[in-house]
Amino acid sequence: MKRILLTVAAAFAMVGAWAQTAETGTVFKNQVLFSPPFLIENTFMVSYERIFPTKGALRITPSVTLSNVENSIFWDKEREGWKIDVGYKAFLIEKGDFVKLNVYLGPYAMYRYLKNYANYYDSYYGKEENEIYNILGAGVDAGAKLTIARFVVDFSFGGGVRYPIGIVGSETATSIFSDNYKGITPRANLSLGIAF
Question: Which residues pair with 3 in a beta bridge?
Answer without folding.
Answer: none
